[in-house]
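Deliverable D2.4 — example input (structure tokens):
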């Protein structure tokens, strides 16, 4: 079975019921998000949700807002906005900076442990 799916509670397909599925947050889930190959592949794949942000006319603040809404369903606070826009502004490679910011949001305690 796929290790990523198993970490997030997907049971083996022994029966047709989803009652075996677990929705409890566990450390294997955290490890998959932090260092698992699937998240890295999804963030670096061309054609993902970061591509439109690369070609858009959005300001850094608008990009940070967009990523926060997408990952956490909220606007960034003042400190988060300052750090996010500074990271994008100072980056030598904008694509890598977007990937870093998205990865940080996906690995935030708020994203990982909110149910």
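Example output (designed residues):
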């Amino acid at each position: 079975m796929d290790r990523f799916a198993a970490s997030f509670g997907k049971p083996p397909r022994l029966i047709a019921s989803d009652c075996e599925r677990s929705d409890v947050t566990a450390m294997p889930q955290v490890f998959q998000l932090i260092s698992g190959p699937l998240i890295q592949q999804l963030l670096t794949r061309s054609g993902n949700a970061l591509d439109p942000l690369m070609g858009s006319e959005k300001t850094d603040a608008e990009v940070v807002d967009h990523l926060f809404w997408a990952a956490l369903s909220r606007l960034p606070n003042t400190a988060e906005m300052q750090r996010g826009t500074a990271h994008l502004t100072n980056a030598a490679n904008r694509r890598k900076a977007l990937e870093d910011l998205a990865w940080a949001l996906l690995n935030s305690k708020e994203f990982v442990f909110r149910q």
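The helical segments are 3-7, 27-35, 37-44, 51-54, 60-72, 78-90, 94-106, 109-113.
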